[in-house]
Recover the amino acids of this structure.
């Protein structure tokens, strides 16, 4: 694995105001062992098929969902597939996997490590949250017969730690605000670090546009873009009137990535409660999006994702934290799927411009043929063996 970045040289700076993941660690997950991947504002995993790009993004999404309080079984419906192929069971026939990340923000770098048992029963068997060399939370499975782990969190009061049980199917870090009172400086430090980690993980939008589902007219509703971008027409109808400046950027991006002339991107109601999307070609000619190629549809949807935000995308950011202190992270496996080299290059350049502004981050996976190394501001993680 090789890593390169063409971002500007790092300078001594104050801690970032917006929490963001700076490293993904896969100690043992699927095809990865002892892997550490740096994450920048725009990170692209590249490499041939089977090199582990999808596995890395799947682990990131799993951490994000656990940080959002989702139960372990829902996050890992097929946990055995996450166990490294050559991992041998121990004397109790247990096998599992380990993942983790680092989030930087106002509290400085905060590290999270999670150990998951996949066989014979799915459960979290260990978790550690650390910052500044101090262990703020540590859990361990003490009694396999009980569906809890023993947790100890930093107190630094009359007792250095506080102990108590936590469920073995939820991320303990996400539960700390419900268990820690914040009476001592130590407990307040624990809460601040946990909040930083959870805010960064919850503000994740996994996106995989499905051209087949994007072609049909869609009902008018809440106007929040689904993961598969099925309701693209509805979201175009909503966003066109909300921010003319960003919509103009969208039209410019679509013009660069779609075949033929494009003067506007429209959505029109059909009178039956549905809306369909169109490209205005000029001179009165309009093309229904259902007639576009798969690559054009994916390009348009991904450009829309990059030019919008949490209020438009189907994501559940931390409501108790001001939007100005959150950064939306888009996960896009197969970012270049169905795109030609020109479209992929335009999309990466658009992503670089948007990520530079700080309100959005992108972690994507592309094939080894996409020319991303020349783009400034891109952290490239090459998984070529």
């Amino acid at each position: 694995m090789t890593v390169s970045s063409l971002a500007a040289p790092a300078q001594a700076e104050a801690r970032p105001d917006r929490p963001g993941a700076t490293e993904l660690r896969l100690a043992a997950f699927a095809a990865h062992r002892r892997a550490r991947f740096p994450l920048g504002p725009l990170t692209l995993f590249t490499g041939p098929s089977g090199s582990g790009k999808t596995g890395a993004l799947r682990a990131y999404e799993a951490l994000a969902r656990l940080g959002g309080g989702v139960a372990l079984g829902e996050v890992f419906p097929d946990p055995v597939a996450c166990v490294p192929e050559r991992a041998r069971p121990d004397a109790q026939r247990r096998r599992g996997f380990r993942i983790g990340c680092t989030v930087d923000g106002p509290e400085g770098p905060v590290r999270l490590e999670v150990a998951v048992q996949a066989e014979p029963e799915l459960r979290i068997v260990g978790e550690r949250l650390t910052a500044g060399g101090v262990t703020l939370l540590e859990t361990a499975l003490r009694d396999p017969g009980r569906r809890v782990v023993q947790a100890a969190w930093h107190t630094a009061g009359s007792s250095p730690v506080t102990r108590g049980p936590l469920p073995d199917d939820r991320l303990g870090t996400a539960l700390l605000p419900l268990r820690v009172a914040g009476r001592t400086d130590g407990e307040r430090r624990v809460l601040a670090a946990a909040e930083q980690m959870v805010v960064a993980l919850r503000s994740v939008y996994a996106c995989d546009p499905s051209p087949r589902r994007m072609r049909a007219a869609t009902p008018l509703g809440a106007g929040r873009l689904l993961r598969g971008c099925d309701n693209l027409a509805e979201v175009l109808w909503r966003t066109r009137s909300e921010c003319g400046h960003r919509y103009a950027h969208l039209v410019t991006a679509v013009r660069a990535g779609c075949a033929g002339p494009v003067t506007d991107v429209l959505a029109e109601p059909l009178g039956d409660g549905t809306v369909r999307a169109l490209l205005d070609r000029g001179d009165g000619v309009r093309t229904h999006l259902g007639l576009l190629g798969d690559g054009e549809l994916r390009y348009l949807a991904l450009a829309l994702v990059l030019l919008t935000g949490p209020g438009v995308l189907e994501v559940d950011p931390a409501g108790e934290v001001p939007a100005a202190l959150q950064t939306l992270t888009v996960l896009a496996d197969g970012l270049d799927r169905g795109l030609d080299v020109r479209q992929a290059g335009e999309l990466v350049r658009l992503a670089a411009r948007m990520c530079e502004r700080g309100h959005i981050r992108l972690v994507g996976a592309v094939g080894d043929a996409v020319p991303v190394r020349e783009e400034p501001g891109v952290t490239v993680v090459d998984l070529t063996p």
